[in-house]
Design a protein that fits this description.
By secondary structure, the protein is α+β, with helices and mostly antiparallel strands. It contains 20 helices and 13 strands. Bound molecules: manganese (II) ion.
Amino acid sequence: MSTPPTFQRLKTILLTNAPKRDIELVHRAYHFAKDAHKGQRRASGEEYIVHPLATAITLAKMRLDNATVAAGLLHDVSDDTPITINEIEKEFGYDVAQLVSGVTKLGKVRYRGIDRYVENLRKMFVAMAQDIRVIIIKFADRLHNLKTIQYLPSEKQQRIAKDTLEIYAPIANRLGMGDIRDKLEDLSFKILYPNEYEWLGHLVSSRFQEKTRYLKSIQRKISHELTQKYHIPILSVHGRTKHLYSLYRKLLARDRDITKIYDLIALRVVVNTVGDCYTVLGVIHTLWRPLKGRIKDYIAQPKPNGYQSLHTTVFCDDGEIVEFQIRTQTMHDEAEYGITAHWHYDERGAVAFDRKLSWAKELSEWHHRIQDSHQLVETVKMDVFRNRIFVFTPQGDAIDLPEDSTPVDFAYHIHTDLGNQCVAAKVNDRLCSLDTALHNGDVVEILVNKQKRGPDPVWLEFVHTATARNKIKAHLRKKTFDRIRRILTTPAM
Ligand code: MN
């Protein structure tokens, strides 16, 4: 069992990550929350404060800033006690109050006349558009609720687990937060499919135990080879088991045949530099023969959510099939913590925002631009959940777009003027029509005519991104408006 959530534990995690960190704010938030929830109990019978503490601990482990950790402690205060957001603001400042208010609203708002899925999705996106940290607090909150879900009525358990799988986990995935996605998925999987969960859990752990000695010897061999022969410093080599829900989905796609799953257990090699990653791949391939079609270079071509690593599967000693995953420490942190790995903290644990993910930025722009929230949900839902592709500019910059995007989507993604003035496109050096569907890895060059007055209305029939659609519409609206104004201001003859 995991250690019970206490303030001491929270403090230890915070100070381990950043020894000079000032935790005064977090400390005050803890006492404030403890007082506010005094006398309240969880469905488990435990004191209520256990839940906000567990939430804050998850956030601290994810290396979030002080304001977010404090908001994690206070997240249920304005919902379950007489304390208002104003009082929180007076006590802890604007940033913390806004986060608490965001989390509270997320739970409260009810939209009428639309299905649960859309309603939940909308709430998530509206909150996310304001401050992505609200969603991350919600993940941490949900994680503890799932861990203690056995005290709730079964119907409620099912509903919470289903929402988690359909909404929370895909968003965590999109934010590149692999660790939290895996936990949310496995806890929900356990509730929704208890028998399959148990069967798979047993299968994986017995297979892991069976292979432990074997993997240890492979681990020693590769470590020795890399450090002694090639002088490559290794940060770590460790075995990892696939998390159960992704394994389950893969099994369903492979007729439930477990022998067809090669990455049940993988060896992960963490090194210092990207150059070392490729050397390690080469060394592995000289030691063991790779399986055809199983070498994946997610460093040169990252997954849509930003995931980077080299993967290869080899016929290892004694004919065993083993997958290797090779990455740098930075890639490892990004795979675990996703978007939050891009945030940098100063010594006091205050966050400097660096919203690197372009779609998170786009999201907040749409929120301001699109007034009709139903429309917002539809467009956002499409763009975020559909598969993404990576295409390249002639200079080699990768652009992240939804599948089936066209050169027009590409052009508007780069710049409004490029979109408005585009007349043709070259895809992989060949002239193509503007409605051509782009594919992963395409190099796209946009040909422009500076004299061109604006977009072609017919483009609206084939563009795929909300960005392109909105920019085209905005331009067309402006054109109509200008024409009307000209008519009105031209003196009659
Ligand atoms: Mn809560």
